[in-house]
Amino acid sequence: MWSSIKPFGRSCVLIEWHQIIHTSILAEISAIRKGIESKQIKGIVDVVPGYTSLTVFFMPEVISYAQILEIIDSSKRRITCNSPRRRNNLGNISRV
Q1: Using CA atoms, how far apart are residues 63 and 4, in angstroms rounded to an integer?
Q2: pLDDT at 23 over 80
Q3: Residues 6+ apart with CB under 8 A from 60
Q4: Does residue 55 lie in a domain region?
Q5: Domain limits at 53?
Q6: Is residue 24 a contact partner of residue 64, using CB atoms and an 8 Å limit?
Q7: Residues near 38 by Cβ (< 8 Å), separated by ≥ 6?
Q8: How big, in percent rounded to 5, are the helix, strand and coil portions of the chain?
Q9: How far is the CA of 28 from the CAs of 23, 43, 44, 62, 91, in angstroms?
Q10: What's the CATH code of the domain at 49?
Q11: Within a domain: 92
């Protein structure tokens, strides 16, 4: 999951992952972006992915920073709940 989430100016939220380019990070960024965009929430202007970040642009007069955090967290939980499972070397099932 991401390493930090913070305000980025008055009308953006910056979510950052560890500074390594990896397919699992890119897939997670893409999934969270799609989760946010699929909700079509009034006040969210744009969701911009990077290799290790995701920036959510919003209108603070329409939606609050706290509400944006809830939406992001909801998208994260959906990914965690839907992630495939595989057996590790000890035979235990773990999330990918």
Answers
A1: 21
A2: yes
A3: 10, 11
A4: yes
A5: 4-80
A6: no
A7: none
A8: 35, 30, 35
A9: 9, 23, 20, 27, 25
A10: 3.30.1360.40
A11: no
Phi and psi at residue 7, in whole multiples of 5°?
A: -65, 145
The full length of the chain comes to 96
- What is the reported pLDDT for 33? 96
Residue 14 has pLDDT above 60, yes or no: yes
96 vs 85: CA distance, rounded Å: 6
**The residue to which tokens 């991401």 are assigned:** 2
Total domains, the chain = 1
Q: What is the pLDDT of residues 25-57, one digit of tens each?
A: 999 999 999 999 999 999 999 999 999 999 999
Whether 65 maps to a domain, the answer reads yes
Under a CB-based contact definition with an 8 Å cutoff, are residues 42 and 75 in contact?
Answer: no
Residue 38, classed as helix, strand or coil, is helix
